[in-house]
Recover the amino acids of this structure.
């Protein structure tokens, strides 16, 4: 399945292998194991770049036995890693941040090749990894338990946070490396070991990230087994999800995946952290600064070709400004540079594959059947030299109502426009979807802004004022409510999910008073 010489596929293959070599990832281990030539009977996964739409190379796929072996190694490594002092674990994460800084461009290149992100966004994703390493290093000296007043004299009541165990990370194609780092940087300082099942669409980015962490571990004299990667599709993920030794399963992906994973982990008494689909909206109020709103909206809706969990998918606009806003957006959408994400000036790269483009076009047909009007975009786009790639023009669609298609997440650049007259109506429309990830309001009216942020406002995990729905910083807790899964990752107190809490009562008196005044003999 090696691409023909001189084609875009061949160029991307060489670029990917060169980036892996610079990073020091084990290139021979990612070379073809071909069942057809009799050298192996292993199943394989193809590495397909959305830029070319054809396989660049083929990798061996982890079977159930490989996943089992990875968990066994991680569980064994946990027995020593858990007792390494937190600040020393932080030192390994600091080194990972340095290595990511050194190889920022190399890793970003792999992200562009596998996920189709424009160079600036791919570099931004690696920067996010560096940022979360910084954050976790600080955390490694500040993971703190509380001491509470005991009701009994001569007693101390306190809590300690201990390492949890093996953390399983299942990640989606659209943030092929950042999601792993949010989980892993924090899990490592918490004393956990990690087994990662990346998206089957982005295995090279995963091998590269893991190689950098393993280098940081080896330099400090720790076992590489602290960090494991298993490559494969859903079956490899299922094996990880079902294994009782995985204390926390952190899964990022579609709502469908979360609905399959949650009962399995709950059934074996494990913990899960789910980061699932979003259907994010922005309210645009009459007082909004429309110049600023247009910039925020276009980045959130068309950036990453609409393939972020936080992508803006619904605009809820006051009827007094809707025509003005739609006119401005139409003009910007019509001029969006679509094409090879490596090229200077490109703002919209390809969708992940032809299936994603078909789902986008089908959603637009459904919207039209519901009475919607496609104002601009929504067409397949041919890019020179890449006939197999699935490029589209981002779509802006006026809808008469929030119909079923609007209430679903279509993972593509479609922005539905709805109108409202009162803020109550806007909030009701806003919250009337199954998902609850990210939200925004554009307004200069403090009453409207605070109402939207309050308990009667947006029901999402992320609620912004005068910025779009995407592009969160790592210092805050990231995640959403309802069918988005309820998990929180990255900053704030998200670390608590990666540790177990022990409540301790210490009696330093000579008496044995019982709590609640109980008298026993
Ligand atoms: P997906 O659900 O198809 O796959 C995600 C991962 O889950 C992959 O690694 C896949 O192999 C694995 N998987 C699928 N079914 C599984 C199962 N039954 N058991 C175990 N593993 C399984 O999602 P995708 O297409 O890669 O990514 C896009 C989706 O991810 C969108 O819905 C997007 O909103 C969501 N997402 C959410 C966040 C967030 O933080 N909330 C971040 C990124 C992406």
């Amino acid at each position: 399945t090696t691409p023909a010489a001189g084609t875009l596929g061949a160029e991307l293959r060489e670029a990917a292998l060169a980036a892996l070599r610079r990073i020091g990832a084990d290139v021979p281990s990612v070379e073809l194991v071909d069942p057809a030539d009799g050298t192996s009977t292993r199943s394989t996964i193809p590495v397909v770049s959305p830029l070319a739409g054809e396989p660049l190379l083929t990798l061996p796929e982890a079977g159930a036995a490989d996943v089992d072996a990875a968990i066994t190694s991680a569980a064994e490594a946990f027995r020593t890693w858990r007792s390494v002092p937190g600040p020393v674990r932080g030192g390994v994460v600091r080194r990972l941040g340095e290595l990511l800084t050194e190889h920022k461009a190399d890793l970003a290149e792999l992200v562009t090749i596998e996920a189709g992100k424009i160079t600036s966004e791919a570099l931004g994703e690696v920067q996010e990894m560096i940022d979360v390493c910084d954050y976790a290093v600080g955390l490694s000296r500040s993971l703190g338990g509380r001491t509470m007043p005991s009701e009994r004299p001569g007693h101390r009541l306190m809590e300690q946070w201990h390492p949890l165990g093996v953390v399983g990370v299942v990640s989606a194609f659209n943030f092929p490396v950042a999601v792993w780092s949010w989980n892993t940087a924090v899990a490592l300082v918490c004393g956990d070991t990690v087994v990662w099942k990346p998206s089957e669409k982005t295995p090279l980015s995963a091998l590269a990230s893991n190689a950098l962490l393993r280098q940081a571990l080896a330099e400090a004299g720790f076992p590489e087994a602290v960090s494991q990667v298993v490559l494969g599709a859903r079956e490899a993920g299922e094996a990880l999800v079902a294994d009782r030794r995985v204390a926390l399963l952190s899964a990022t992906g579609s709502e469908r995946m979360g609905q399959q994973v949650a009962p399995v982990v709950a059934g074996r008494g494990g913990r899960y952290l789910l980061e699932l689909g979003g259907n994010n909206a922005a309210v645009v109020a009459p007082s909004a600064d429309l110049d600023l709103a247009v910039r925020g909206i276009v980045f959130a809706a068309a950036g990453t070709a609409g393939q972020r969990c936080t992508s803006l998918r619904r605009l809820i606009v006051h009827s007094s400004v809707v025509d003005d806003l739609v006119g401005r957006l139409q003009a910007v959408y019509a001029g969006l540079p679509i094409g090879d994400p490596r090229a200077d000036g490109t703002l919209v790269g390809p969708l992940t594959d032809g299936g994603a483009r078909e789902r986008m076009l089908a959603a637009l047909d459904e919207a039209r059947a519901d009475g919607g009007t496609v104002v601009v975009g929504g067409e397949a786009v041919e890019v020179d030299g890449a006939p197999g790639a699935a490029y589209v023009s981002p779509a802006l669609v006026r809808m008469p109502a929030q119909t079923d298609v609007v209430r679903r997440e279509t993972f593509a650049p479609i922005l539905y426009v709805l109108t409202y007259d009162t803020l109550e109506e806007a909030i009701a429309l806003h919250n009337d979807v199954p998902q609850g990830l990210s939200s925004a309001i554009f307004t200069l009216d403090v009453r409207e802004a605070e109402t939207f942020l309050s308990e009667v406002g947006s029901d999402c995990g992320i609620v912004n004022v005068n910025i779009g729905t995407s592009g969160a910083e790592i210092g805050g807790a990231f995640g959403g409510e309802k069918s988005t899964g309820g998990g929180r990752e990255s900053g704030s107190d998200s670390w608590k999910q990666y540790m177990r809490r022990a409540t301790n009562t210490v009696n330093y008196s000579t008496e044995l008073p019982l709590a609640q005044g109980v008298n026993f003999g």
